[in-house]
Specification:
The chain has about 70 residues and is mainly alpha-helical. The chain has one domain. The chain is built from 3 helices and 2 strands; from the N terminus they run αββαα. Strands 1-2 form a two-stranded antiparallel ribbon. The chain is globular, with a radius of gyration of 13 Å. The model has no long low-confidence stretch (mean pLDDT about 75).
Length: about 70
């Protein structure tokens, strides 16, 4: 198992910045015991992604999260 801080850095660098072209400083990434905890920033990001695809006209939010990183920041 990788250290939580290394996992968080990897997600911020490879997923947010490189894959999604999102500034990793705008979204918190909680990692606890090697598990990425569902967080509100991820829900918001997940809702924005479908709109970038041709033919998608709407996305309904039925996603949940355990940590509200918007309220924390």
């Amino acid at each position: 198992m990788r250290d939580d801080e290394k996992l968080r850095d990897n997600i911020r660098r490879e997923v947010l910045r490189q894959t999604l072209s999102v500034d990793p400083d705008t979204i918190g990434v909680p990692v606890d015991g090697g598990a990425v905890v569902p967080w509100s920033g991820a829900v918001e990001l997940a809702l924005r992604l479908p709109h970038a695809l041709p033919g998608i006209v709407d996305a309904h939010n039925e996603l949940t999260y355990r940590i509200d990183d918007v309220a924390v920041n």
